[in-house]
Backbone:
């Protein structure tokens, strides 16, 4: 088993420096070189292009990089499963979540999990949908929760919740005082929205295209809270999840624009690599997720 060599190779591919790799893995630089040499001999290919000024991974090195990440994950998962007691839920669970889910929906589930499984160590990484899918694909997290779409054929995607979105504005906005607003009144408006790669931005783009809306301007902010604060200060419209705006609407900091004959709904999903489907902590998390939001089962 070339576990140590593969771990060395993956680290070197990511930091692109022999000295830093040796420091990270607490080994000598000649040991790093020997691991890479042994792998190149084993696979009969050059894994890196080297010169005094740069280190670049080769195309065959890229192939091995993806496979090595999988092999290391399988090995470490197997080692953890063997060390765990048969009927106990403990160890680490790394969860990736898009911003809306991670900041407003996931916390209540984390509370339940911590109460039910006190030995389970939870780690949450928050990013946009595109970033979370990438984290799942590279095994940086065990499971991801996303609000957008993914075409990654290597991953398994399952719906867990329906989410309603609303167009919101400051209380002083010209559309906020109207009882019913036709979609045509959204022409030539200024929008405050999330960055490209976000599921919320993707959905807003769909709404704009499908209704033939012209946009006066886009202000991009990679934070739901930042968007809300900007809207409260009178800077245009935004399309946000009910979970994001609920408290601000109740406290009358924001107003929902009441559209005539229009509603916006999307599906939130969990995504994981098939090799994770039998991992005990992942199975436990999915079970808790479906129990809390059973409507999409």
Residues:
């Amino acid at each position: 088993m070339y576990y140590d060599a593969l771990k060395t190779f993956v680290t070197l591919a990511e930091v692109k420096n022999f000295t830093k790799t040796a420091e990270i893995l607490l080994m000598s630089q000649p040991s790093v070189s020997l691991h890479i040499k042994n792998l190149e001999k084993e696979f009969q290919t050059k894994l890196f292009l080297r010169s005094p000024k740069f280190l670049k991974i080769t195309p065959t090195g890229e192939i091995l990089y993806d496979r090595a990440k999988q092999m290391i994950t399988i090995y470490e998962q197997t080692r953890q499963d063997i060390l765990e007691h048969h009927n106990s839920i403990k160890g680490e669970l790394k969860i990736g979540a898009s911003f809306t889910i991670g900041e407003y929906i996931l916390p209540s589930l984390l509370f339940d999990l911590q109460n039910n499984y006190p030995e389970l160590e939870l780690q949450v990484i928050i990013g946009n949908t595109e970033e979370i899918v990438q984290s799942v694909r590279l095994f940086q997290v065990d499971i991801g929760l996303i609000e957008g779409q993914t075409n990654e054929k290597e991953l398994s995607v399952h719906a867990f919740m329906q989410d309603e979105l609303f167009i919101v504005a400051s209380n002083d906005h010209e559309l906020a005082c109207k009882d019913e607003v036709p979609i045509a009144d959204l022409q030539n408006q200024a929008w405050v929205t999330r960055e490209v790669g976000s599921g919320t931005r993707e959905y807003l783009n769909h709404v704009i295209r499908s209704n033939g809306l012209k946009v006066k301007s886009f202000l991009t902010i990679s934070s739901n809270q930042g968007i809300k604060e900007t809207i409260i200060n009178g800077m245009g419209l935004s399309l946000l999840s009910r979970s994001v705006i609920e408290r601000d609407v109740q406290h009358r900091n924001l107003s929902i624009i009441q559209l005539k004959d229009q509603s916006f709904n999307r599906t939130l999903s969990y995504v994981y690599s098939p090799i994770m489907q039998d991992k005990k902590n992942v199975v436990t998390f999915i079970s808790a997720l479906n129990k809390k939001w059973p409507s999409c089962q």
